C-alpha cells in the first residue's frame, strides 16, 4: 500500500471500533420513550436521569464496588504468588519444571462453562459462596498461569549476573528479590497486573455463579435489569458505559507496555 | 540462559501450585465423578461407566454444537489473523499517534463480555439500532433475531470487533522489535514491499502470531457470554455454541452426568487442538535457527 494512504487503514478500523461504543453512550443519554419511540442518531432530549438512577441506587453502584474489590484482590493475589514461581521457572531447573509449566497453561484452556457448577459446589462447601474472596480465588484459575507466563518472559530477559552481584554484595535472597529484582522488572509486573485486571474485570460467568447478593458484580446486576424490569435500555446503556471507564483508565496508564505484555512471554 | 539445578525451587512454585490445584483439580475431579455416575433424587449415585460419554458422542445435538463451534472459531481466525497483521503493518511506527491508536484499539478488550453482547444487541436491533437501521436502509432484509444467517453475521462481526485488536497489539509489538538494519539491507537489495513482508516481517512475527493464534483459538472455543447475551443461542439453535449448550444442560436441565461427560470431551478437544497448533507452529523453529 502507498505510504500516503496508509493511515486510512487504522483510522477506518478505529472508526469501526468506536461506532458501537458511540451508540451505547448516545443511548445512555436518551429517555426510554425516545429509545423505543424510533430511530435517532443523536439524543433529542438529552437526559442524565439514567446516570442519576445508577448513582442513587445502592444495588447499582454497589455492583461497581463489588467488581472493583474482587478484581483488585485477584490482581494482587495472582501477581504476588506468580512472582516467586516465575523466578523459579526462569532461573532454576527442577524436577518436573516443564510439565508443571505446561499444566499451569492448560488451566488457561479450561472453559469456564465446564467449571461453573463444580465451582459453585466447592465454594459453597468451604463457606465462601457470595464473598469477594470466592470470585478473586476462582479467577486465579486463569490469571495465575497468565501472570507466570508473562513474568517469566520478563525475568528471562534480566541477566543472571544481576543476581550473583547482589549475593556478593551481601544481600539475602529476599532482600535481593524485593529490593533489586522486582523493581528491575517493574514494567513486567505492570503488564502482568494489567492483564490480570483485564481478564478478571471482563469475566462474568464464574463471577455470577459464585455470588448472590453481597458480592454481586456490576455485570450481573445488568443482566438482572435486562430480564426483570422489561426494557430499560437507557439504564442498561448507562451502566454499560460506566463499565468501560475503569478499563479506559487502566489502558491509558499502561499504554506503552500493553503491546509488550504477550510479546515477551515465552510460548 | 544457563539454569542451575535446584530442587528447592519447588518452594517458590508451591503457592501457585496450591492455589491452582484447589481451583483446578478439585472441580475437575468433581466433573470426572459426575461423568461416570448416574444420579437419582439428591445424593444417591450409581456407577454408570461410560454411558454418558457414549450418549454425548453419538447425540446429534452435541455434534451439531461442535460443528457450529468449529465453524465459528475457524471463521473468526481466518478473518482476525490476517486483518490484525494488516492493520499492524499500516500503523505509524513512532510519533504521538502511536499511543492514540493503541489506547483506542485496546478499548474493546477491557469491556465486560456481557456488556459487549448487550452493546451489540442494541447496536444491531433492526428497528432502533444503528447497524440494523443502516443495513435495512441499504436495502438488506436484516433481522438478527429472526434469521439465522443474520445472527451469524452479527456474531462474527461482533467477535471481529471485540478481538482483532489483540492480534493488532501483538503483531505491532513483534514488528517494533525488528531492527532498522533489516529494512535498510532490504532497501539496498531493492526488495519489494511483498518481499519484505514475506522474508523479513512474517518470519519475525512467527512467535507473537503463535501466541495470538493460540489465545484466539482457546478463547473463541470457550466463548459463552457474548453470544448468550446477543442471541441467546437463537434463533432456534442456530448460534448455540458448545459452551451455551453445556450451560443449558448443566444448569438449565441439571443433567449432571451428560453435562460432565460433555465438559470432559470439550476440554480434551481444546487441549488436543491447542497442542496441534503449538507443535505445528513451533516445529520449524529449530530448522530455521530462529533465535528466541
Largest interface: A-B, 98 and 99 residues
Proportion of residues in helical segments of chain B: over 70%
User: What sequence of helices (H) and strands (E) makes up the elements of chain A?
Assistant: HHHHEHHHHHHHHHH
Regarding quaternary structure, what we see is heterodimer
**Rg of chain A, Cα atoms, Å:** 23 Å
Dominant shape of chain A: globular
The arrangement of helices and strands of chain B along the chain is EHEEHHHHHHHHHHH
Q: Runs of chain A with pLDDT <50, length 5+? A: none
Strand content of chain B: under 5%
The radius of gyration of chain B is 23 Å
Largest sheet properties of chain B = 2 strands, antiparallel
What about the largest sheet of chain A?
none
The proportion of residues in beta strands of chain A is under 5%
Describe this structure in words.
The complex is a heterodimer of chains A (267) and B (292). Chain A has 267 residues and is an all-alpha fold. Chain A is built from 14 helices and one strand, in the order H-H-H-H-E-H-H-H-H-H-H-H-H-H-H. Chain A is globular and about 75 Å long. Chain B contains twelve helices and three strands, in the order βαββααααααααααα. In chain B, strands 2-3 form a two-stranded antiparallel ribbon. In chain B, strand 2 and strand 3 form a beta hairpin. The longest helix of chain B is centred in the last third of the chain and has 33 residues. The C terminus of chain B is likely disordered. The interface between A and B is large, with 98 and 99 residues. Strand 1 of chain A pairs parallel with strand 1 of chain B.
Amino acid at each position: 500500500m502507498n505510504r500516503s494512504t496508509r493511515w486510512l487503514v487504522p483510522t477506518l478500523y478505529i472508526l469501526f471500533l468506536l461506532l458501537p461504543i458511540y451508540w451505547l453512550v448516545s443511548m445512555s443519554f436518551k429517555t426510554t420513550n425516545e429509545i423505543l419511540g424510533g430511530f435517532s442518531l443523536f439524543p433529542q432530549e438529552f437526559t442524565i436521569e439514567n446516570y442519576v438512577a445508577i448513582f442513587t441506587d445502592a444495588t447499582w453502584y454497589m455492583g461497581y464496588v463489588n467488581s472493583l474489590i474482587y478484581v483488585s484482590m485477584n490482581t494482587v493475589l495472582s501477581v504476588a504468588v506468580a512472582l516467586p514461581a516465575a523466578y523459579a521457572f526462569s532461573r532454576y531447573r527442577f524436577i518436573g519444571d516443564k510439565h508443571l509449566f505446561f499444566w499451569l497453561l492448560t488451566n488457561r484452556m479450561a472453559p469456564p462453562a465446564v467449571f461453573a457448577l463444580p465451582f459453585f459446589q466447592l465454594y459453597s462447601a468451604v463457606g465462601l459462596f457470595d464473598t469477594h474472596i470466592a470470585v478473586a480465588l476462582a479467577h486465579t484459575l486463569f490469571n495465575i498461569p497468565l501472570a507466570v507466563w508473562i513474568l517469566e518472559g520478563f525475568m528471562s530477559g534480566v541477566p543472571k549476573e544481576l543476581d550473583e552481584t547482589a549475593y556478593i554484595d551481601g544481600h539475602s535472597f529476599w532482600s535481593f528479590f524485593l529490593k533489586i529484582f522486582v523493581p528491575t522488572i517493574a514494567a513486567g509486573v505492570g503488564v502482568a497486573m494489567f492483564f490480570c485486571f483485564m481478564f478478571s474485570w471482563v469475566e462474568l460467568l464464574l463471577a455470577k455463579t459464585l455470588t448472590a447478593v453481597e458480592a454481586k458484580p456490576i455485570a450481573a446486576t445488568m443482566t438482572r435489569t435486562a430480564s426483570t424490569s422489561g426494557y430499560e435500555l437507557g439504564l442498561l446503556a448507562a451502566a454499560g458505559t460506566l463499565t468501560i471507564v475503569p478499563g479506559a483508565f487502566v489502558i491509558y496508564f499502561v499504554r506503552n507496555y500493553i503491546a509488550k505484555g504477550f510479546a515477551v512471554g515465552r510460548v | 540462559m544457563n539454569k542451575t539445578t535446584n530442587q528447592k525451587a519447588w518452594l517458590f512454585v508451591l503457592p501457585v501450585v496450591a492455589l491452582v490445584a484447589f481451583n483446578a483439580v478439585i472441580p475437575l475431579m468433581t466433573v470426572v465423578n459426575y461423568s461416570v455416575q448416574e444420579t437419582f433424587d439428591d445424593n444417591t449415585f450409581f456407577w454408570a461407566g461410560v454411558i454418558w460419554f457414549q450418549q454425548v458422542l453419538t447425540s446429534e445435538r452435541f455434534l451439531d454444537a461442535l460443528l457450529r463451534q468449529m465453524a465459528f472459531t475457524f471463521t473468526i481466525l481466518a478473518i482476525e489473523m490476517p486483518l490484525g497483521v494488516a492493520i499492524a503493518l499500516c500503523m505509524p511506527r513512532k510519533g504521538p499517534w502511536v499511543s492514540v491508536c493503541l489506547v483506542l484499539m485496546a478499548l474493546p478488550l477491557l469491556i465486560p463480555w456481557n456488556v459487549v453482547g448487550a452493546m451489540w444487541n442494541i447496536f444491531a436491533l433492526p428497528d432502533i439500532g444503528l447497524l440494523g437501521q443502516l443495513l435495512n436502509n441499504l436495502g438488506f432484509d436484516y433481522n438478527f433475531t429472526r434469521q439465522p444467517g443474520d445472527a451469524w453475521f452479527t456474531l462474527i462481526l461482533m467477535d471481529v470487533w471485540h478481538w482483532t485488536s489483540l492480534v493488532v497489539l501483538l503483531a505491532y509489538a513483534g514488528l517494533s522489535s525488528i531492527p532498522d538494519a533489516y529494512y535498510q539491507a532490504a532497501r539496498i537489495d531493492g526488495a519489494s514491499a511483498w518481499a519484505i513482508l514475506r522474508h523479513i516481517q512474517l518470519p519475525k512475527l512467527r512467535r507473537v502470531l503463535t501466541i495470538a493464534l493460540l489465545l484466539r483459538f482457546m478463547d473463541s472455543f470457550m466463548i459463552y457470554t457474548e453470544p448468550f447475551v446477543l442471541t441467546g443461542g437463537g434463533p432456534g439453535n442456530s448460534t448455540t455454541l458448545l459452551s451455551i449448550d453445556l450451560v443449558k444442560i448443566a444448569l438449565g436441565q441439571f443433567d449432571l452426568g451428560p453435562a460432565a461427560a460433555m465438559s470432559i470431551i470439550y476440554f480434551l478437544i481444546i487441549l488436543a487442538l491447542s497442542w496441534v497448533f503449538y507443535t505445528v507452529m513451533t516445529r520449524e523453529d529449530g530448522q530455521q535457527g530462529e533465535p528466541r
